C-alpha cells in the first residue's frame, strides 16, 4: 500500500468518480456467464444488455446473498464454470428482488448490494473533510490509503505533542474510514501517532467514535445522489469535536502507566496469547515477535508498539486498521492484559 499525499488522493478519487455508475437491477433479469475463465454479469441497459466482470468483492457479496459458501462457490467457478453459472442464475432468478450494482471503469461490477444501501462515496467524504483541514492549520495528514474497497485517513493535531517517556513523543489525532462497496461503515475514531517509529494506534469505541452504516430506505431509482447530507453534517461536526483532544491527557496517563508496566512472561507466551485472542496470522505473530525483541522494551507499551509497528506491514487497509485497533485495545483493556503480566 502506498501512503498518498493529499493532492494524489484527491486526483485518484476524482478519476475514479468519473468512471463509476450504479444500477438498480431485478435479479430475474441478471445473467451470470463465464468468458475466457472470467465470471461476468449481464444486465439490461435500455434496449440492449451490458456485461460487467464480477470482481472479488461482488462475487463474495453475491455468494453471501444466495447463501452459497464462498469456498464452494470459488471452487465451482475455477473447476466447473458452467455449473457455477447455472447455479447462480437459478438462485438469482428465484430471488425476485432488486439489487444495487456498483460498477467502475465501464466494465467491472465492484459491489452487489441491497437496494437499501446508502451511498456515502469518497468524493463526498473529501468534500466534508477538506474544508476542516483548510480551516484548521494545526491538523496534518499523516496517512492516506485508498484501495478499491476502502479509504482511510489519519490526521494529527500538531500543537499538542506529549511524551510517554523522554524522547518518545506522541501526537493526538483522528482516523477516518469509508468504504464505497459495503465492506466498512463510515467511521471516525481517536488516533495516537508515535513519532519515533511513525506508527499509530486507534482507540476503541469507548474512547470516542462515530460510526454510520450505509443503510437507509429502499431506493426506487438512482437518478440522483442516494447520500444523506445530514450524515455528512454530523460527520463534520464529530470530526471538529474529536480533534479538540479533550481526552488526550487521560490517554497519555494510560500510556505512561503502560510504559512502566513490565511484562514478565516470555515473548513467545505473550505473542501466542494476543495471537489467540485476536486471531492473528502466523506471519503477523512472527513480525510482532521480531519487533518486540528488537525494541528491547519489555513493558506493555513495548508490546503495544510491536503490534502497531506490525500494522505498517499490512497489505490491505482493513488489516492495517485492525492491527491499529488491537494496539489500542491492548493499551486500554487492562482486564485482558492482566493475564499477560506478572
Number of helices: 12
Helix content: 40-55%
Distance between the amino and carboxyl termini:
38 Å
Unreliable stretches covering 5 or more consecutive residues: none
**How many distinct beta strands?**
13
Question: Which series of helices and strands comes N to C?
Answer: HEEEEHHHEEHEEEEEEEHHHHHHH
Strand coverage percent: 25-35%
Structural class: alpha+beta
The quaternary structure here is single chain
Shape: globular
Largest sheet: 7 strands, antiparallel
**Can you tell me the number of structural domains?**
3
Rg, rounded, reads 23 Å
Mean pLDDT: 90
Describe the protein:
- The chain has 342 residues and is of the alpha+beta class.
- The protein has three domains: 21-114; 122-245, no CATH class; 254-337.
- The protein has helices at 6-19, 56-65, 70-79, 81-95, 122-135, 229-242, 248-259, 267-278, 282-295, 300-311, 317-332, 334-337; strands at residues 21-26, 31-35, 38-45, 48-54, 98-104, 108-114, 139-146, 151-157, 162-165, 168-178, 186-194, 199-202, 209-212.
- The strands form two sheets. Strands 7, 8, 9, 10, 11, 12 and 13 form a seven-stranded antiparallel sheet that branches.
- The radius of gyration is 23 Å and the shape is globular.
- It starts with 5 loop residues before the first helix and ends in a 5-residue tail after the last helix.
- The mean pLDDT is 90.
Topology:
Blueprint: H1 6-19, E1 21-26, E2 31-35, E3 38-45, E4 48-54, H2 56-65, H3 70-79, H4 81-95, E5 98-104, E6 108-114, H5 122-135, E7 139-146, E8 151-157, E9 162-165, E10 168-178, E11 186-194, E12 199-202, E13 209-212, H6 229-242, H7 248-259, H8 267-278, H9 282-295, H10 300-311, H11 317-332, H12 334-337
Parallel strand pairs: 4-6
Antiparallel strand pairs: 1-5, 2-3, 3-4, 5-6, 7-8, 8-10, 9-10, 10-11, 11-12, 11-13
Helix pairs in contact: 3-4, 5-6, 8-9, 9-10, 10-11
Amino acid at each position: 500500500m502506498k501512503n498518498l499525499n493529499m493532492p494524489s488522493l484527491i486526483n485518484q478519487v476524482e478519476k475514479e468518480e468519473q468512471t463509476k455508475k450504479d444500477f438498480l437491477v431485478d435479479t430475474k433479469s441478471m445473467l451470470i456467464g463465464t468468458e475466457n475463465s472470467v465470471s461476468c454479469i449481464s444486465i439490461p441497459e435500455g434496449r440492449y444488455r451490458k456485461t460487467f466482470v464480477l470482481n472479488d468483492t461482488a462475487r463474495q457479496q453475491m455468494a453471501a446473498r444466495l447463501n452459497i459458501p464462498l469456498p464452494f462457490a470459488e471452487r465451482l467457478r475455477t473447476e466447473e464454470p458452467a455449473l457455477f453459472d447455472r447455479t447462480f442464475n437459478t438462485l438469482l432468478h428465484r430471488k425476485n428482488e432488486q439489487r444495487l450494482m456498483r460498477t467502475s471503469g465501464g466494465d467491472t461490477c465492484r459491489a452487489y448490494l441491497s437496494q437499501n444501501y446508502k451511498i456515502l462515496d469518497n468524493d463526498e467524504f473529501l468534500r466534508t473533510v477538506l474544508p476542516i483541514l483548510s480551516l484548521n492549520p494545526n491538523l496534518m495528514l499523516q496517512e492516506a490509503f485508498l484501495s478499491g474497497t476502502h479509504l482511510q485517513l489519519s490526521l494529527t493535531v500538531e500543537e499538542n505533542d506529549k511524551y510517554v517517556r523522554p524522547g518518545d513523543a506522541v501526537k493526538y489525532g483522528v482516523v477516518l474510514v469509508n468504504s464505497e462497496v459495503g465492506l466498512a461503515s463510515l467511521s471516525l475514531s481517536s488516533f495516537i501517532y508515535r513519532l519515533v517509529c511513525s506508527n499509530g494506534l486507534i482507540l476503541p469505541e469507548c474512547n470516542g467514535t462515530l460510526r454510520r452504516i450505509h443503510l437507509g430506505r429502499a431506493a426506487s431509482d438512482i437518478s440522483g445522489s442516494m447520500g444523506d447530507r445530514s450524515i455528512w453534517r454530523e460527520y463534520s461536526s464529530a470530526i471538529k469535536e474529536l480533534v479538540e483532544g479533550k481526552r488526550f491527557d487521560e490517554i497519555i496517563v494510560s500510556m505512561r502507566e503502560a510504559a512502566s508496566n513490565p511484562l514478565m512472561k516470555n515473548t513467545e507466551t505473550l505473542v501466542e496469547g494476543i495471537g489467540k485472542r485476536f486471531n492473528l496470522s502466523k506471519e503477523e505473530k512472527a513480525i510482532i515477535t521480531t519487533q518486540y525483541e528488537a525494541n528491547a522494551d519489555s513493558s506493555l507499551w513495548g508490546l503495544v508498539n510491536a503490534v502497531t509497528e506490525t500494522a505498517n506491514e499490512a497489505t490491505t487497509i482493513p488489516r492495517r486498521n485492525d492491527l491499529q485497533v488491537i494496539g489500542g485495545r491492548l493499551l486500554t483493556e487492562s482486564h485482558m492484559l492482566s493475564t499477560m503480566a506478572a
